[in-house]
Design brief:
Blueprint lengths: L5 H13 L8 E9 L5 E9 L2 H15 L10 H5 L12 E9 L2 E10 L2 H11 L3 E6 L3 E7 L7 H16 L8 H23 L3 E7 L2 E5 L2 E2 L5 E7 H9 L8 E7 L1
Length: 258
C-alpha cells in the first residue's frame, strides 16, 4: 500500500519478519475486510505464529538484556515491524498495530480504518494481481481473489535457470534443449512444492469479508449471514501458483453491500 495495501502486503511483511529469524516458526494469516453500515471500512490482518516462535522471541529478549540487538522489544515486535507506518498514511486513514503473547503463540494484528472507497481499490491494485475489488452498480462491491490472475511463472523460472548457468558455468549465452529445460523446471517445481510442505505444513490463509449484506459468494457463510470466508493451505497456494495451468487455480468472490 501506501499503507492501505495491508490487505496483501501483510503476507509479505510476515514473510520478511519470519524467514530471516527461522523457518521453523510458521504462521497462519487471517485477512478480514469489514464494510460497516455507516460507510466505515476496516482492513484487518492477524498473523498467528506457531508456539515455537515464543522461544525465538524469548531468545531475542534475552540477547537484548545483555547487548544492543537493535530491537526495542519492549515496544512489541509487531509494532517494530510497522515502524513509521502511521506517518505515511493518507488523510482520513488510521492504522494500528498490536500484539498478543499467548501460550499458543504470538499474534500480530494490523488494522486500517477509512471511509473513502478509493483506498480499498488502491489496496487491491497494490497488493498484487490476485486481489479483486470491483465497485458495481447499486452500491455493491465484489471482493475476493483469483489465483488464475497470477502469471505463469515458467518464464521467470527459465530466466533464473539460465542466469544460474551464466553464474556457475561462466556461459555468456547458455543454451539448453527445450526438453531439457522442461525436465529441469518440472523437477524444480516439485522441489519447491516439497519445500513449501516442509515449511508451511498445514498453516493457512483465511480470507473473510464481513458486510451488512452478503448477496452472493463462492465461500462459506457465517451463521449470522453477515460474513463469508475462504481458507487455503499455504502449500496448496504455492503448488497452484507454480502450476503453469493458470485456469485450474482456485478463486474466491463475494458480492456484498452495505
Amino acid at each position: 500500500m501506501p499503507i492501505p495495501t495491508r490487505v496483501g502486503r501483510i503476507c509479505r511483511l510476515a514473510l520478511a519478519l519470519v524467514l530471516p529469524i527461522g523457518l521453523s516458526a510458521c504462521f497462519d494469516i487471517e485477512q478480514r475486510i469489514t464494510l460497516e453500515p455507516d460507510g466505515l471500512t476496516r482492513v484487518a490482518t492477524e498473523v498467528h505464529f506457531s508456539p515455537q516462535f515464543n522461544d525465538i522471541l524469548a531468545a531475542l529478549e534475552v540477547r537484548g538484556r545483555h547487548f544492543d540487538t537493535g530491537l526495542d522489544l519492549d515496544r512489541g515486535l509487531c509494532e517494530i515491524a510497522n515502524e513509521g507506518a502511521s506517518s505515511s498514511l493518507p488523510p482520513g486513514v488510521a492504522f494500528t498495530a498490536s500484539q498478543l503473547r499467548t501460550p499458543d503463540g504470538l499474534i500480530c494484528r494490523f488494522e486500517l480504518t477509512f471511509r473513502e472507497g478509493q483506498y480499498l481499490q488502491m489496496a487491491a491494485a497494490l497488493s498484487g494481481e490476485a486481489f479483486i475489488v470491483e465497485d458495481l452498480p447499486g452500491g455493491t462491491t465484489r471482493i475476493g481473489f483469483d489465483l488464475s490472475r497470477v502469471p505463469d511463472p515458467t518464464p521467470l523460472l527459465t530466466e533464473a535457470l539460465l542466469d544460474q548457468m551464466r553464474t556457475r558455468l561462466g556461459l555468456s549465452a547458455p543454451r539448453l534443449d527445450p526438453a531439457d529445460i522442461a525436465e529441469i523446471l518440472d523437477a524444480d517445481r516439485r522441489a519447491l512444492a516439497g519445500l513449501a510442505e516442509l515449511i508451511f505444513r498445514d498453516h493457512r490463509l483465511t480470507f473473510i469479508v464481513t458486510a451488512p449484506r452478503i448477496i452472493e459468494t463462492s465461500g462459506a457463510i457465517s451463521d449470522d449471514g453477515q460474513s463469508t470466508s475462504h481458507s487455503m493451505r499455504f502449500v496448496d497456494m504455492v503448488r497452484d501458483v507454480l502450476d503453469p495451468d493458470t485456469e485450474a487455480r482456485p478463486s474466491f468472490r463475494a458480492l456484498v453491500g452495505r
